[in-house]
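Reopening this ticket.

The earlier resolution said the output was attached, but the attachment link was broken on my side. Pasting everything inline this time so it's all in one place.
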Amino acid sequence: MINTDPYRNLARRVLVDATVDTRYDAHKAINQLCTIIEMVKDDRPVRRVSLTRRQDEVWRYVAGRIDQDNITPTHKEIKIDCQLSQTAVVHDILNSLEKRGYLVRLPGTRGAMEILIWPEGMEG
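Inline output:
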């Protein structure tokens, strides 16, 4: 049985922080909550989906910055430090990491993310 407290706290924060002024924001908040629910459904452990080399590099970089500095790096910082060609590539990689359940973007904030699955050796 996994400890679901971090996921419950994150779900509460998503609900509290969600700005539902527009249909898009409400839709995004619902999708994030669905991702969280899927991760703890039936008390199954979170299954790691294999990542590409670049996805893994960006995931570890973002998790490291959050772990070390307690801030989320900007798309431009990720682009430069991970040696990616464009910020659009960063956006695509972050979308795929969110879809796979490795991280979630927090609504009502500009660029804030929460790591759901931490790399080995990082505690969060």
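Reporter confirms the inline version is readable. The longest strand covers residues 103-105. The helical segments are 5-17, 23-40, 53-69, 75-81, 87-99.
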